[in-house]
Design brief:
single chain, 266 residues, alpha+beta, YojJ-like (1, 2 domains, 10 helices, 7 strands
Length: 266
Protein backbone atom coordinates (compact mmCIF):
# COMPACT_ATOMS: atom_id res chain seq x y z
CA UNK A 1 0.00 0.00 0.00
CA UNK A 2 2.83 2.36 0.91
CA UNK A 3 4.62 1.55 -2.34
CA UNK A 4 1.47 2.37 -4.30
CA UNK A 5 1.16 5.72 -2.54
CA UNK A 6 4.82 6.56 -3.19
CA UNK A 7 4.44 5.57 -6.84
CA UNK A 8 1.33 7.75 -7.29
CA UNK A 9 3.06 10.63 -5.52
CA UNK A 10 6.14 10.45 -7.74
CA UNK A 11 4.14 9.91 -10.91
CA UNK A 12 1.35 12.46 -10.51
CA UNK A 13 1.07 14.55 -7.37
CA UNK A 14 4.64 15.83 -7.16
CA UNK A 15 4.40 17.25 -10.69
CA UNK A 16 0.99 18.81 -10.03
CA UNK A 17 2.17 20.48 -6.82
CA UNK A 18 5.38 21.56 -8.53
CA UNK A 19 3.42 23.28 -11.32
CA UNK A 20 1.10 24.94 -8.79
CA UNK A 21 4.06 26.32 -6.79
CA UNK A 22 5.82 27.64 -9.89
CA UNK A 23 2.58 29.20 -11.16
CA UNK A 24 2.01 30.84 -7.78
CA UNK A 25 5.54 32.30 -7.79
CA UNK A 26 5.11 33.73 -11.28
CA UNK A 27 1.68 35.10 -10.33
CA UNK A 28 3.15 36.89 -7.31
CA UNK A 29 6.00 38.25 -9.42
CA UNK A 30 3.54 39.63 -11.96
CA UNK A 31 1.52 41.28 -9.19
CA UNK A 32 4.74 42.75 -7.81
CA UNK A 33 5.84 44.42 -11.04
CA UNK A 34 2.42 45.22 -12.50
CA UNK A 35 2.00 48.94 -13.03
CA UNK A 36 5.66 49.74 -12.28
CA UNK A 37 8.65 50.52 -14.46
CA UNK A 38 9.79 46.94 -13.80
CA UNK A 39 7.18 45.63 -16.23
CA UNK A 40 8.96 47.48 -19.05
CA UNK A 41 12.26 45.88 -18.03
CA UNK A 42 10.58 42.46 -17.91
CA UNK A 43 9.23 42.95 -21.43
CA UNK A 44 12.72 43.90 -22.63
CA UNK A 45 14.21 40.79 -21.02
CA UNK A 46 11.52 38.69 -22.69
CA UNK A 47 12.42 40.13 -26.08
CA UNK A 48 16.10 39.36 -25.50
CA UNK A 49 15.12 35.80 -24.53
CA UNK A 50 13.15 35.33 -27.74
CA UNK A 51 16.04 36.76 -29.76
CA UNK A 52 18.43 34.32 -28.09
CA UNK A 53 16.21 31.38 -29.00
CA UNK A 54 15.73 32.52 -32.60
CA UNK A 55 19.46 33.18 -33.10
CA UNK A 56 20.17 29.57 -32.15
CA UNK A 57 17.35 28.08 -34.23
CA UNK A 58 18.13 30.18 -37.32
CA UNK A 59 21.86 29.63 -37.03
CA UNK A 60 23.35 33.08 -36.34
CA UNK A 61 26.53 32.05 -34.47
CA UNK A 62 27.92 35.52 -33.67
CA UNK A 63 24.59 36.90 -32.49
CA UNK A 64 23.92 33.77 -30.47
CA UNK A 65 27.37 33.96 -28.85
CA UNK A 66 26.75 37.60 -27.91
CA UNK A 67 23.34 36.88 -26.42
CA UNK A 68 24.59 33.80 -24.56
CA UNK A 69 27.26 35.92 -22.89
CA UNK A 70 24.62 38.49 -22.01
CA UNK A 71 22.74 35.83 -20.01
CA UNK A 72 25.88 34.90 -18.05
CA UNK A 73 25.52 38.19 -16.21
CA UNK A 74 21.75 37.88 -16.06
CA UNK A 75 21.46 37.27 -12.32
CA UNK A 76 23.54 40.32 -11.42
CA UNK A 77 21.73 42.40 -14.03
CA UNK A 78 18.31 41.44 -12.67
CA UNK A 79 19.42 42.20 -9.10
CA UNK A 80 20.50 45.69 -10.16
CA UNK A 81 17.50 46.48 -12.38
CA UNK A 82 14.89 45.18 -9.97
CA UNK A 83 16.57 46.38 -6.77
CA UNK A 84 13.65 48.59 -5.58
CA UNK A 85 11.08 45.89 -6.37
CA UNK A 86 13.16 43.19 -4.64
CA UNK A 87 13.45 45.31 -1.51
CA UNK A 88 9.70 45.87 -1.51
CA UNK A 89 9.02 42.16 -2.05
CA UNK A 90 11.31 41.07 0.79
CA UNK A 91 9.71 43.63 3.07
CA UNK A 92 6.28 42.28 2.16
CA UNK A 93 7.39 38.71 2.93
CA UNK A 94 8.44 39.81 6.38
CA UNK A 95 5.16 41.54 7.06
CA UNK A 96 2.34 39.86 8.91
CA UNK A 97 -0.68 38.63 6.98
CA UNK A 98 -3.40 38.95 9.57
CA UNK A 99 -5.80 41.86 9.37
CA UNK A 100 -5.13 44.59 11.89
CA UNK A 101 -7.56 46.55 13.94
CA UNK A 102 -7.22 50.29 14.38
CA UNK A 103 -6.49 50.80 18.06
CA UNK A 104 -7.47 53.82 20.08
CA UNK A 105 -3.97 55.31 19.92
CA UNK A 106 -3.87 54.89 16.14
CA UNK A 107 -7.29 56.50 15.82
CA UNK A 108 -6.03 59.51 17.76
CA UNK A 109 -3.14 59.82 15.29
CA UNK A 110 -5.57 59.59 12.38
CA UNK A 111 -7.73 62.35 13.87
CA UNK A 112 -4.76 64.67 14.42
CA UNK A 113 -3.35 64.00 10.95
CA UNK A 114 -6.73 64.59 9.31
CA UNK A 115 -7.16 67.87 11.17
CA UNK A 116 -3.65 69.03 10.21
CA UNK A 117 -3.97 68.00 6.56
CA UNK A 118 -7.36 69.66 6.16
CA UNK A 119 -5.96 72.90 7.57
CA UNK A 120 -2.85 72.65 5.39
CA UNK A 121 -5.05 72.04 2.35
CA UNK A 122 -7.17 75.10 3.18
CA UNK A 123 -4.03 77.25 3.52
CA UNK A 124 -2.31 75.62 0.52
CA UNK A 125 0.58 74.72 2.79
CA UNK A 126 2.92 72.03 1.42
CA UNK A 127 3.07 68.91 3.58
CA UNK A 128 4.64 65.45 3.30
CA UNK A 129 4.00 62.74 5.88
CA UNK A 130 5.51 59.26 5.63
CA UNK A 131 4.13 56.43 7.76
CA UNK A 132 6.70 53.76 8.56
CA UNK A 133 5.50 50.19 8.51
CA UNK A 134 7.65 47.03 8.56
CA UNK A 135 10.56 48.41 6.54
CA UNK A 136 12.72 50.63 8.74
CA UNK A 137 13.31 54.19 7.53
CA UNK A 138 16.29 54.99 9.75
CA UNK A 139 18.53 55.94 6.80
CA UNK A 140 16.06 58.59 5.70
CA UNK A 141 15.44 59.76 9.24
CA UNK A 142 19.14 60.51 9.62
CA UNK A 143 18.90 62.90 6.66
CA UNK A 144 16.68 65.16 8.77
CA UNK A 145 16.22 65.93 12.45
CA UNK A 146 15.41 63.10 14.86
CA UNK A 147 12.40 63.72 17.08
CA UNK A 148 10.24 61.77 19.48
CA UNK A 149 7.05 63.77 19.71
CA UNK A 150 3.35 63.22 19.98
CA UNK A 151 1.43 63.57 16.72
CA UNK A 152 -0.65 66.70 17.05
CA UNK A 153 -2.30 69.03 14.59
CA UNK A 154 -0.46 72.02 16.02
CA UNK A 155 3.01 70.45 15.79
CA UNK A 156 2.52 69.22 12.21
CA UNK A 157 1.35 72.64 11.06
CA UNK A 158 4.27 74.29 12.86
CA UNK A 159 6.82 71.97 11.22
CA UNK A 160 5.54 72.73 7.71
CA UNK A 161 4.90 76.43 8.19
CA UNK A 162 7.40 78.50 6.16
CA UNK A 163 9.98 79.76 6.95
CA UNK A 164 10.52 76.93 9.46
CA UNK A 165 13.86 75.25 8.80
CA UNK A 166 12.23 71.81 8.48
CA UNK A 167 9.30 72.70 6.25
CA UNK A 168 10.93 71.60 2.96
CA UNK A 169 11.50 67.98 4.02
CA UNK A 170 9.11 65.28 5.14
CA UNK A 171 7.94 63.99 8.51
CA UNK A 172 8.30 60.31 9.43
CA UNK A 173 5.64 58.86 11.73
CA UNK A 174 6.79 55.69 13.48
CA UNK A 175 4.73 53.77 16.01
CA UNK A 176 2.25 56.64 16.31
CA UNK A 177 4.99 59.17 17.11
CA UNK A 178 6.72 61.83 15.06
CA UNK A 179 10.17 60.25 14.73
CA UNK A 180 11.82 62.67 12.31
CA UNK A 181 11.27 65.92 10.43
CA UNK A 182 12.98 67.62 7.53
CA UNK A 183 13.78 64.18 6.09
CA UNK A 184 14.85 63.74 2.48
CA UNK A 185 13.36 60.88 0.45
CA UNK A 186 14.33 59.43 -2.95
CA UNK A 187 12.49 60.90 -5.91
CA UNK A 188 10.57 58.47 -8.09
CA UNK A 189 12.01 58.01 -11.58
CA UNK A 190 8.90 56.24 -12.83
CA UNK A 191 8.43 57.43 -16.45
CA UNK A 192 4.67 56.90 -16.21
CA UNK A 193 4.38 59.82 -13.75
CA UNK A 194 3.42 63.08 -15.37
CA UNK A 195 6.34 65.42 -16.03
CA UNK A 196 4.75 68.29 -14.15
CA UNK A 197 4.32 66.29 -10.96
CA UNK A 198 6.15 68.22 -8.25
CA UNK A 199 9.20 67.21 -6.21
CA UNK A 200 7.12 66.68 -3.08
CA UNK A 201 4.82 64.26 -4.91
CA UNK A 202 7.75 62.42 -6.50
CA UNK A 203 9.32 62.02 -3.06
CA UNK A 204 6.00 60.73 -1.74
CA UNK A 205 5.97 58.08 -4.48
CA UNK A 206 9.70 57.37 -4.28
CA UNK A 207 9.72 56.31 -0.63
CA UNK A 208 6.89 53.83 -1.32
CA UNK A 209 8.94 52.28 -4.16
CA UNK A 210 11.83 51.34 -1.85
CA UNK A 211 9.82 50.41 1.25
CA UNK A 212 6.37 49.33 2.37
CA UNK A 213 5.70 52.77 3.85
CA UNK A 214 2.83 54.89 2.62
CA UNK A 215 2.82 58.65 2.36
CA UNK A 216 0.46 61.58 2.38
CA UNK A 217 1.16 64.96 0.85
CA UNK A 218 -0.51 68.33 0.31
CA UNK A 219 0.26 70.46 -2.72
CA UNK A 220 1.34 73.98 -1.82
CA UNK A 221 0.12 75.22 -5.22
CA UNK A 222 -3.36 73.70 -5.29
CA UNK A 223 -3.99 72.45 -1.75
CA UNK A 224 -4.94 69.06 -3.17
CA UNK A 225 -4.36 66.00 -0.99
CA UNK A 226 -2.59 62.89 -2.31
CA UNK A 227 -1.80 59.45 -0.92
CA UNK A 228 0.96 57.20 -2.27
CA UNK A 229 1.53 53.50 -1.64
CA UNK A 230 3.39 50.75 -3.47
CA UNK A 231 4.72 53.19 -6.07
CA UNK A 232 1.25 54.52 -6.95
CA UNK A 233 -0.21 57.91 -6.15
CA UNK A 234 -3.87 58.85 -5.83
CA UNK A 235 -4.50 62.57 -5.97
CA UNK A 236 -7.41 64.91 -5.34
CA UNK A 237 -8.46 63.02 -2.23
CA UNK A 238 -11.68 64.45 -0.85
CA UNK A 239 -10.81 65.90 2.60
CA UNK A 240 -14.03 64.44 3.99
CA UNK A 241 -12.97 60.97 2.82
CA UNK A 242 -9.40 61.26 4.09
CA UNK A 243 -10.13 59.71 7.48
CA UNK A 244 -11.50 56.53 5.87
CA UNK A 245 -8.43 56.32 3.60
CA UNK A 246 -6.15 56.45 6.63
CA UNK A 247 -8.20 53.94 8.61
CA UNK A 248 -8.11 51.51 5.66
CA UNK A 249 -4.33 51.89 5.38
CA UNK A 250 -3.84 51.30 9.10
CA UNK A 251 -5.93 48.14 8.87
CA UNK A 252 -3.97 46.83 5.92
CA UNK A 253 -1.08 44.50 6.92
CA UNK A 254 0.77 45.15 3.66
CA UNK A 255 0.45 46.98 0.36
CA UNK A 256 -3.22 47.22 -0.48
CA UNK A 257 -4.65 47.18 -3.96
CA UNK A 258 -3.51 50.31 -5.73
CA UNK A 259 -6.02 53.01 -6.43
CA UNK A 260 -6.29 54.42 -9.95
CA UNK A 261 -3.51 56.88 -10.66
CA UNK A 262 -4.88 60.37 -11.10
CA UNK A 263 -2.28 63.07 -11.50
CA UNK A 264 -2.39 66.76 -10.90
CA UNK A 265 -0.14 69.66 -11.66
CA UNK A 266 1.69 70.31 -8.40
Amino acid sequence: MMDLFVNIWRTYFVHIIDLILVSFIFYKLLLLIRGTRAIQIAVGIGIVGIATFLSKVLGFPTLNWLLQNFWLAGVVLLAVLFQPELRSALASLGAGTANRFVHHEEMEVVNEVVAAVKEASRRQMGMLLVFERDTGLRDYMESGTTLDAEVTRELLLTLFQPPALLHDGGVIIRQNRIAGAGCIFPLSQDPSLEKWLGTRHRAAVGITEVSDAWSLCVSEETGNISIAESGKITTRIDPDELRQYLVDLYRSPGPKKAQPVVVEKA
